[in-house]
Amino acid sequence: MWLNRRSDQVLLVPVVSWAAPANRGEVLFLWPSLQYCAQWLHWLPDIVVGDMGYISLEEQRKIRERLGVTVITKLRPDMKLIAPFEPGPVAVCPQGQVLTWLGLERRDQLHWFGVTAVDPLCERCWEQSHCARQFSYQPSAHEILFGQIPLASSVAKILLEKVRPWIEPAQSYEKNQLGLSQMFLNNLQLTWAVCLLADAAVLLRAHAMLMRPTCLPALHALFPNQLSLDLD
Amino acid sequence: MKQELAPTGTATLLEQISDFVPDDFINELLVGQRRRGRKRHWTPAQLYRLLLLTMLTPAHSFNLMLRLLQEQRSWRKFAHLPNRYRLPAASQLHDFRDLLGTKGLRRINQFLLEPLLQTLSLERQTIGLIDATDLPAATSAYKKS
């Protein structure tokens, strides 16, 4: 999870970790992770950004409808685009004018797309007399392309291109600096234990970065300290 | 408060994070779970700190860490083990890890996470990232499908 309080640096902390054999698909862990957050932490992220391994339209629909969490993933290469999207993906009207996502109307559960270009094709369009220049689509039409935040929106693009890669150095820290990849792991129970210990180490670092210790001993101020010998 | 952290593996980092280890919570977590047998010399918090040392020091093995513990004062200070000649054995650490289990480790992480969740800015949307990574295991079973 991205601790968004700080604006001068990006700080990620682990919320839920699973250790599983390599023959288990990643898609199995998205729903249990969110359920764990809801049940044990009484908290859910607003948006979850994943890679293509997490694509399951049914699962994403369940997460959107039951938990209200937005899942953003890239479209798998073998998935086909549906109207109003063209490769990019970019939303366009039936006549080819590029549309901008205006927002999700929560009450009606409708995504609204409209023309916001400075010099649109609409002036020359033969349908302009009866075109409202705004189009609505249901999120359930395609969970990845629409969902709660459409893949064609600038928000989704920023999250996928700029935010998602942050997880790589976070994983690298646990694997290389905390030594997860150097440990001799010969059973799943041990793997679970060391993964959770690595998470604890990251959480402790986050505490040290963000907060002063809250549980100092009562006589902490009186503890002896080594004096520095200033010879200048 | 922003605080620069020392590199991972250094004694300074151990000092910087030591105050944040929830010793009381860990000790309370295992109250009543004492097994039969000889009296335990070490508190759960001490043993948990030893487990953490395998992550926070260059000794990424429980046995190696225990072997080096005698000559590493800063490590013993972090684990609240003042006596260099009286240290837990590998079997005790192993038993403690079993006793704590995944559930216990998760509870501790949850305890550490809760105050961080409270610091989240309410005006901004919260973003979670999900990803999988491979760890080399000493088994040839369960290949990637």
Strand content of chain B: under 5%
Distance between the termini of chain B: 46 Å
Oligomer: heterodimer
Major sheet summary line of chain A: 3 strands, antiparallel
Give Rg of chain A in angstroms: 24 Å
Q: What's the helix-strand series of chain B?
A: HHHHHHE
Low-confidence stretches of chain A: none
Q: What strand line-up does the widest sheet of chain A have?
A: 5-6-7
Q: Helix share of residues of chain B?
A: 40-55%
In what range is the share of β-strand residues of chain A? Answer: 5-15%
Give the overall silhouette of chain B.
Answer: globular
N-to-C SSE string of chain A, H for helix and E for strand: HEHEEEEEEHHH
Low-confidence parts of chain B lasting 5 or more residues at pLDDT below 50?
none
Helical segment tally of chain B?
6
Mean pLDDT of chain B: 86
Features:
heterodimer; A: 232 residues; alpha+beta; 3-stranded antiparallel β-sheet; two-stranded parallel ribbon; 7 strands; elongated; B: 145 residues; mainly alpha; 6 helices; 49% helix; globular
Topology record:
The complex is a heterodimer of chains A (232) and B (145).
Chain A: H1 30-41, E1 47-49, H2 57-67, E2 70-72, E3 85-86, E4 90-91, E5 100-105, E6 110-114, E7 134-137, H3 154-163, H4 167-177, H5 188-210
Parallel strand pairs in A: 1-2
Antiparallel strand pairs in A: 3-4, 5-6, 6-7
Chain B: H1 11-18, H2 23-29, H3 44-56, H4 62-69, H5 73-78, H6 90-118, E1 127-129
Helix pairs in contact in B: 2-3
